[in-house]
Design a protein that fits this description.
This protein is of the alpha/beta class. The chain has 6 helices and 8 strands. The radius of gyration is 16 Å and the shape is globular. Strands 3-2-1-4-5-6-7-8 form an 8-stranded mixed sheet, sandwiched between helices. The relative contact order is 0.15. The chain has one domain: 3-Layer(aba) Sandwich (Rossmann fold). The chain starts with a strand and ends with a strand. Strand 7 and strand 8 form a beta hairpin.
Length: 227
């Protein structure tokens, strides 16, 4: 892994920072992305180990292009950037402007960054894409009507995961999603699981063998979830 470069979006959040630290500890060259360059610089400085920083707004195609160009060849993408804007709302009265923003970041943003790095992965015949999803996006686990836009956007992210996995099957590129569980964070201060624990699960997906699963939804501890 010492020759591999990992790009982590939303690296300024608790989970993004923990994932970046875990991947750096595993020997990857980590590029941390946040909307503000100064914030990304702070995260990279805290990680050390040669971590680099880029500014990236996943909703802005030009910003994504500039960030990916600055990162150089990306072997591992962790789509961690995400927003929760409609907690406590109801599907029948949800603010669709907030819902649209959740889709723009959580689903389309991840798709946009994946499109930017996948051509290089395909040309090198190796790559790992890990999309940070949620149990609220699983029909089997149960969609969450008290955050309808967030839930639906994570369902869409799961669909993007499957579509990209099918399109890259047999190429050496693996595309998977993971439900990190109810993490203790600014988004959910009452969460019981530490971001550092979830970061280990993400790192395990990055380290999957070439014949490992693709288009799969994982949960804590590496267990497979139903879509």
């Amino acid at each position: 892994m010492a020759t591999r470069t990992a790009l982590v979006t939303g690296a300024n959040g608790e989970l993004g920072r923990a994932i970046s630290e875990q991947l750096a500890a595993a020997g990857l060259q980590v590029v941390v992305a946040a909307r503000e360059r100064e914030v990304a610089d702070q995260v990279a400085a805290g990680i050390g180990a040669g971590a680099r920083a880029v500014a990236m707004d996943v909703t802005d195609p030009d910003s994504v292009r500039r960030a990916v160009d600055a990162a150089g060849p990306v072997d591992v993408l962790v789509n961690n950037a995400g927003v929760l804007l409609d907690a406590g709302s109801r599907p029948v009265t949800a603010d669709l402007g907030a819902v649209a923003q959740e889709f723009a970041v959580n689903a389309l943003g991840a798709w946009r960054v994946a499109q930017a790095v996948l051509p290089g992965m395909l040309s090198r015949r190796w790559g790992r894409v890990v999309n940070i999803s949620s149990g609220t996006g699983s029909f089997a686990f149960g969609l969450f009507p008290s955050a309808p836009g967030y839930s639906a956007s994570k369902t869409a992210l799961n669909a993007v995961t499957v579509l990209l996995a099918k399109d890259t099957e047999g190429t050496g590129v693996l595309v998977n999603a993971i439900n990190p569980g109810q993490l203790r964070s600014r988004m959910r201060p009452q969460g019981k699981r530490l971001p550092e624990e979830a970061a280990v699960d993400v790192a395990n997906l990055v380290a999957l063998p070439d014949d490992g699963p693709t288009g799969t939804f994982f949960r804590a501890g590496g267990q497979v979830m139903a879509w």
